[in-house]
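User: Predict the full complex structure for these chains.
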Amino acid sequence: MATKPTPRVRVPSQAKAGEMIEIKTLISHEMESGQRKDASGKIVPRKIINKFTAAFNGKMVFEADWNPAISANPYQSFFYKASESGEFTFTWKDDDGSDYVATNKLTVA
Amino acid sequence: MVSKSVELTRRNTLAMVGIAGLAAILAPRLSFADEKMVAAEIKKLYGDKTFESGKIKLDVPEIAENGLVVPINVEIESPMTDADYVKSVHVFAEGNPLPGVVSYKFTPACGKASASTRMRLAETQNIVCIAEMSNGKLHMAKANVKVTIGGCGG
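Assistant: Here is the predicted structure of the two-chain assembly.
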């Protein structure tokens, strides 16, 4: 992909203590499976985001290992039980070694 | 593969197709996963341990018109406390070129062992989901998805 993958994350900015919040993430990425052939019949080499992680105040909350079977522009949602104010760090790890990072603040009232 | 190509070349309709051409047609199919490959993959992870049914809600469409984007939601019944939570979840596809779809690691901080994503499916097949609880118990669920247009290769 010509453009750098851009992550989009939907997290409520405020939550009550003990409230279950749903976090929805989306990142633009072609997720080249390594199974597809180009016009000349050559296999297009694999290039996917192989790992997605979510941490809150530096502590790991949720991890997903993605295989080539994950669709292009991968979507991932999961839950988090709010307990304290802080910051989420979401990281997407690409096959080529690059990391795409997004951070979101959460205020717990 | 050998037996398959012999069988097919016997047919008059395919007599015109050369062996090379036939191999080219069959080759991509051969690399597809099947039930055995998924079972081997699970065995690699958990050995000969037994799986219980129940606890897993595997939500996939019955019919997927486009195999490129098939929504999947897994939800595992668990209190998600420090003492009792879902540790990991693996999802496999029995009819894709590669059996693995996604693996999740949950923590008690999730509050709920539920996650959604979108996957590619090459053809009509079974989706297998296994979940490992913090006490070591294993659960398994299967669901069939009918795929109208495959989502791999092309």
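The mean pLDDT of chain A is 94.
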